[in-house]
TrEMBL record:
Pfam families: Cas3-like_C_2 (PF22590), Cas3_HD (PF18019), DEAD (PF00270). It comes from candidate division KSB3 bacterium. SMART domains: DEXDc. This is CRISPR-associated helicase Cas3. The keyword Nucleus does not apply.
C-alpha cells in the first residue's frame, strides 16, 4: 500500500499516465535537502523536514484527488499533517520545523493571529487520517539542540538567529521539493539545469586574462591598478566583513570582482553575488561581467531585464540562484530574506558560502537599515559568507552608539589609506550657492555653459527647468532625464548624451538623481540641488570623471523649493550642516563620516519609532518561537513602500509593436489573456510607474485603458501627454483640460 501512494502524476503526449510514488518523492526531497543544508551544517533538520513535509498526501482524500481514474478535485490541505507530526513526534523543539512543513506551498505563516492559516491554529486543526498509511522512512528518535547550530557560527544563537534558521531551512526544503518534483514532471527541464557552468577557478582565469589587457594610459589607470593590487592582496585574508572605500572613477567594479574571485578561490566559496541599489547600474555592470565571463556565467536578476539578455539556462537559475556570478538589486536581495513565499525564498540557501559585494553600500534603505544589516551579519557570522561594502562614501555601519546591536563588526578596510586615496582622486572643486535660485535663474545660468549637468530632487523641478532652458536652446543641445520616461526612452536619451559628449558638442542635461546611479557620463561642470553628502559625492562622480581637465566644478545650490519631506529633506539638512562645517573639503572622509553620524542620529530620533527600523522588523523577528509573524514581516519589509502602478507607453516602433502583441493575447485560443514571459519582459522596457493618486486620475479621465479588464496591464491612450522631450507629463495642459471636464 505504501509504495502505491502517489505524490504526483503525469500524462505523456500519447496519453499514458506516469506515477511519482510518495515514498520516492519524500526520500528524493530529503536527499536533496540534506545535501543543500550540509553547506551550513543543518543537514539533520533538513533531512527530517524533507521526509515528512508531504505526509498529508498519504490521506485517502488526497489519493482520491490525484488518482487519474477518479478525477475528483477537492481542495485538500496536505501541508498541515506534516507540521502536526513533527510537533507530536519531537515536541516543542520541532515548532521551528513545523512552520516549514505548514508553509511549504502557501508560504511561511504567522505563528499566532486571528486567522485559521496561522501555525498555532493549524497545529490544532482536524486533518484527514494519514498516520496508518505513511511511508516507512528513517527518522531520528530525537532532535538535539546541537542540530540547530550552523556549521560556521562565530557567536551564540539568539532569537533572530533561530528565525533565520527557519528561513534557510525553508529555502532548502522548497528548492529540494521543487527540483525533485521537476525531475519527474519535466525531465528535459531538469536535465537542462545540469549543464556544466564555469567554476570559480575558470572565472578567475578569465578575469586575469582581461586584466592583462589593461594599459597604463591615461594616468588615472596607474591609480586604478594600485587599487586592484590592494584588492588581490586582501583576498588572502580570512572570510569576514571588508570595506572598499574607493572614490568614484577608481575602478571598483573590476577591483571588487578581482577580490571576490581570488577570495572565493582561496577559501573554496561557491559564488559571487553582486548587490546593487539600482537597475540602471546593474545593466551596466552585468554587461561588463558578461564580456569578461560569458553569458552563461552571469545571472542578472532584477525586474527590468531585457529578454535578449536572458538565456534559457539563466532563466532556470534565477529560480534558485544556481550560478557562479549573480548580479541583483538591494530590493531583490533583502526582500527575499524577509519574504515568506517559496518562489522568493528558494534561492536563499545558495547564498551561503558566497562572496557578497554590496556596491554603493551607502544606498541601503535607511528605514530598513537595521534589518538589512542583520541579514549581512547573520550570513557572515553563521553561513560562511564574506561581505564587501563598496562605496566612495563609507557610511557608519559599525557605530554601536547609533545602531546598537544591529551594527556590523568593524570591517577590514582593503585600501591602506582611504583619506590619501581621496586626496589623490580629488578632481572636483565644490562651491556652494546659499541663495535660493528660481527655475528661470538656473536655466539662464546653465545656458552660459556648453556642457553641463544639473541634478535636482524632484521630477517636477527637472521638467520645469528643462522647459525654461528649451525656450532659448534647440532640442539637440538640451536633454531631460527622469523616471517619467520609460526605460527604453531613457536608454535612447543617454546614447544621445554620450554621443554629444564624445564629439565635444553642446550638451545640457537636466536630470533627477537617477543619473547618479552609476551612469558613466563625464561633464566639466555639474550642478547639484542640496542633498545628502552621499548624493553630492555621486554627483561629483559625473564631473571630470576621466581627469581630462585639471579640476572639474561642482556647484551645490538651493532651488525654489526645499527637498520633499522625509528622507530627502532630512538628508539635505544633514548635508547642509556638513557643507557649512567642512567648506574646503566637504567630500573628505571625515566630512562623510560626520554626515552619516548626523543623518543616522536624525533618523533614529525622528519620531517615537526607530527611524532605522521603521516597521519594527527586528522586534518581530525576535518573537517567541511559537509566535514569529512571518507573513506580517513579509508584508512590512518593502524597500519601495509606496504603491505604484505601471502603465505601458507606446514609445517608438518597438513599444507600439510590443503593445500590439499584448492586445493580441486577449484572443488566445486556449488561454485568453495569457502573456508569455518574454513579452512581459519586453513590456517592462516601456513602462512608467505612477503614484496611486495620479493613476486614479488617469483612469477616471480615460487617459489609460485596462487591456484585459482585469487590472493587469494598462496602456496610455492619450499620446499627447507623453513627449519625446520629457516623457509623461501629468501636468500637460491637454490632460488638465480633459480632467477639468470630470464632474
Amino acid at each position: 500500500m505504501q509504495n502505491e501512494l502517489l505524490a504526483h502524476v503525469r500524462q505523456d503526449e500519447e496519453g499514458n499516465w506516469h506515477f511519482h510514488h510518495l515514498q520516492e518523492h519524500l526520500e528524493g526531497t530529503a536527499e536533496l535537502a540534506e545535501k543543500f543544508a550540509a553547506v551550513f551544517g543543518l543537514e539533520t533538520l533538513a533531512s527530517i523536514i524533507g521526509k515528512v513535509h508531504d505526509y498529508g498526501k498519504a490521506s485517502q482524500k488526497f489519493q482520491d484527488r490525484i488518482d487519474p481514474e477518479l478525477h475528483v478535485d477537492p481542495q485538500v490541505d496536505h501541508s498541515t499533517a506534516g507540521a502536526q507530526f513533527l510537533v507530536e513526534q519531537y515536541g516543542d523543539v520541532a515548532i521551528l520545523l513545523a512552520y516549514i512543513a505548514a508553509g511549504h506551498h502557501g508560504g511561511l505563516p504567522n505563528g499566532k493571529d486571528e486567522h485559521e492559516s496561522c501555525l498555532s491554529r493549524r497545529l490544532k486543526k482536524s486533518v484527514e487520517e494519514y498516520r496508518s498509511r505513511i511511508p516507512t522512512v528513517s527518522l531520528p528518535e530525537k532532535i538535539l539542540p546541537a542540530d540547530f547550530i550552523p556549521l560556521k557560527i562565530t557567536g551564540k544563537l539568539n532569537p533572530y538567529s533561530l528565525h533565520f534558521i527557519i528561513r534557510m531551512l525553508y529555502s532548502v526544503l522548497t528548492d529540494a521539493d521543487f527540483l525533485d518534483t521537476e525531475t519527474f514532471m519535466n525531465f528535459e527541464v531538469s536535465a537542462a539545469r545540469q549543464r556544466k557552468r564555469d567554476s570559480i577557478g575558470d572565472l578567475h582565469a578569465k578575469l586575469e586574462q582581461h586584466i592583462a589587457t589593461f594599459t597604463s594610459d591615461p594616468p588615472i589607470n596607474h591609480k586604478r591598478a594600485q587599487i586592484l593590487t590592494w584588492c588581490q592582496a586582501a583576498a588572502q585574508q580570512q572570510p569576514g566583513i571588508f570595506s572598499l572605500t574607493v572614490p568614484t572613477g577608481g575602478g571598483k567594479t573590476i577591483s571588487s570582482m578581482a577580490f571576490a574571485l581570488e577570495h572565493a578561490k582561496t577559501h573554496k566559496l561557491r559564488r559571487v553575488i553582486y548587490v546593487i541599489p539600482y537597475t540602471s547600474i546593474i545593466i551596466q555592470n552585468a554587461e561588463v561581467f558578461r564580456r569578461i565571463f560569458g553569458d552563461e556565467a552571469v545571472l542578472e536578476h532584477h525586474s527590468n531585464l531585457e529578454p535578449k539578455r536572458e538565456t534559457p539556462q539563466n532563466r532556470l537559475a534565477a529560480q534558485n540562484w544556481d550560478a557562479p556570478v549573480i548580479v541583483t538589486t538591494n530590493v531583490q536581495f533583502f526582500e527575499s530574506f524577509y519574504n515568506n513565499r517559496s518562489s522568493a525564498c528558494r534561492k536563499l540557501h545558495n547564498v551561503a558560502d558566497s562572496v557578497l559585494i554590496f556596491d554603493e553600500a551607502q544606498m541601503f534603505p535607511p528605514e530598513l537599515l537595521k534589518p538589512s544589516l542583520a541579514v549581512i551579519r547573520e550570513l557572515v557570522g553563521s553561513y560562511g559568507c564574506t561581505a564587501v561594502l563598496c562605496t566612495a562614501t563609507q557610511p557608519t555601519l559599525n557605530d554601536t552608539s547609533l545602531l546598537k546591536k544591529e551594527a556590523l563588526k568593524e570591517g577590514c578596510e582593503i585600501v591602506p589609506d582611504p583619506q590619501q586615496l581621496y586626496e589623490e582622486f580629488r578632481r572636483v572643486e565644490v562651491t556652494v550657492r546659499d541663495e535660493a535660485l528660481s527655475h528661470e535663474t538656473i536655466a539662464q545660468e546653465i545656458a552660459e555653459h556648453d556642457q553641463i549637468l544639473v541634478i535636482v530632487n524632484t521630477r517636477k523641478d527637472a521638467r520645469q527647468i528643462f522647459e525654461q532652458l528649451r525656450e532659448t536652446h534647440p532640442a539637440h543641445e538640451c536633454f531631460h532625464l527622469s523616471t517619467m520616461m520609460c526605460p527604453a526612452h531613457r536608454s535612447v536619451t543617454l546614447k544621445a548624451i554620450h554621443a554629444c559628449l564624445d564629439k565635444g558638442l553642446p550638451c545640457r542635461v537636466i536630470s533627477t538623481q537617477l543619473i547618479e546611479a552609476g551612469v558613466d557620463v563625464d561633464f566639466p561642470i555639474v550642478w547639484r540641488a542640496i542633498a545628502g553628502i552621499d548624493s553630492i559625492a555621486q554627483a561629483a562622480g559625473r564631473c571630470n570623471r576621466e581627469w581630462t581637465r585639471d579640476k572639474g566644478r561642482l556647484v551645490v545650490f538651493r532651488g525654489e523649493q526645499p527637498p520633499p519631506p522625509g528622507y530627502l529633506r532630512q538628508a539635505a539638512e544633514s548635508g547642509k550642516r556638513v557643507l557649512d562645517s567642512y567648506p574646503d573639503a566637504p567630500l573628505s572622509l571625515v566630512a562623510v563620516k560626520r554626515y552619516f553620524e548626523d543623518f543616522f542620529w536624525k533618523r533614529s530620533k525622528s519620531s517615537s519609532v526607530d527611524g532605522l527600523d521603521k516597521k519594527g522588523i527586528m522586534q518581530m523577528c525576535r518573537s517567541n518561537p511559537k509566535a514569529i509573524p512571518f507573513k506580517d514581516i513579509a508584508q512590512q519589509f518593502k524597500v519601495i513602500d509606496e504603491r505604484t502602478y505601471a502603465i505601458l507607453i507606446p514609445y517608438q516602433h518597438e513599444g507600439k509593436q510590443a503593445i500590439n502583441e499584448l492586445e493580441k493575447c486577449r484572443f488566445h485560443k486556449e488561454h485568453p489573456g495569457y502573456v508569455n514571459r518574454e513579452l512581459r519582459k519586453t513590456l517592462q522596457r516601456y513602462t512608467v510607474q505612477l503614484r496611486e493618486r495620479v493613476f486614479r486620475e488617469f483612469r477616471q479621465s480615460a487617459v489609460i485603458e485596462d487591456v484585459f479588464g482585469d487590472e493587469q496591464f494598462f496602456v496610455l491612450l492619450n499620446k499627447d501627454i507623453y513627449t519625446e522631450n520629457v516623457g509623461l507629463n501629468p501636468e500637460n495642459p491637454v490632460f488638465m483640460e480633459v480632467e477639468s471636464l470630470i464632474i
